[in-house]
């Protein structure tokens, strides 16, 4: 099951990277092709790190059933957003994200909402 989740995550990351690389060099407003290339590389790195964090969250036994967590990445800073059912899960999600190689810091914006 973990292998399937990881494989799916890798496929999504590659698809996102491919979409980013299909941009024309002049598509950014006034940017040069080298800055556009840098932006694409950074977006690919961000996508890859996001995928790694999502995979780690999905692989964690205590968190794999939580579907309300979204992950955003800017550079090596990961932001967790959404809702979880307990403060322990909020803390655990942050801990798992921090443990992913390439993550320098985590902004935990998760909210705790009891299941209804």
Quick synopsis:
The protein is of the alpha+beta class and 116 residues long. The protein has helices spanning 2-21, 33-59, 87-98, and strands spanning 69-74, 77-84, 105-112.
List the keywords.
3 strands; elongated; alpha+beta; 116 residues; three-stranded mixed beta sheet; 3 helices
Could you describe the 3D structure shown?
- The chain has about 120 residues and is α+β, with helices and mostly antiparallel strands.
- The protein has one domain.
- About 50% of the residues lie in helices and about 20% in strands.
- The protein has helices at about 1-20, 35-60, 85-100; strands at about 70-75, 75-85, 105-110.
- The chain is elongated.
- It starts with a helix and ends with a strand.
- The model is unreliable at about 20-30 (pLDDT under 50).
What distance separates the N and C termini?
28 Å
In this structure, how is the largest beta sheet organized?
A: 3 strands, mixed
Q: Into which percentage range does the β-strand content fall? A: 15-25%
User: Based on helices, strands and strand pairing, what is the structural class?
Assistant: alpha+beta
Average pLDDT taken over every residue: 78
Number of individual domains: 1
User: Can you tell me the overall shape?
Assistant: elongated
Radius of gyration: 16 Å
**Which regions are unreliable across 5 or more consecutive residues at pLDDT < 50?**
20-28
What is the chain-wise order of helices and strands? HHEEHE
Placed side by side, the strands forming the largest sheet appear as: 1-2-3
**Number of E-state strands:** 3
Helix % is 40-55%
> Given the structure, what is the number of helices?
3
């Amino acid at each position: 099951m973990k292998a399937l989740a990881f494989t799916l995550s890798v496929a999504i990351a590659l698809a996102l990277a491919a979409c980013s690389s299909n941009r024309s060099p002049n598509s950014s407003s006034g940017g040069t092709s080298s800055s556009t290339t840098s932006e694409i590389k950074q977006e690919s790195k961000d996508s890859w790190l996001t995928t790694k964090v999502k995979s780690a969250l999905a692989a964690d036994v205590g968190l794999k059933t939580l579907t309300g967590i979204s992950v955003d990445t800017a550079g090596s800073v990961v932001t967790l957003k959404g809702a979880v059912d307990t403060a322990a899960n909020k803390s655990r999600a942050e801990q798992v994200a921090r443990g992913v190689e390439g993550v320098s810091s985590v902004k935990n914006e998760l909210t705790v909402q009891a299941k209804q």
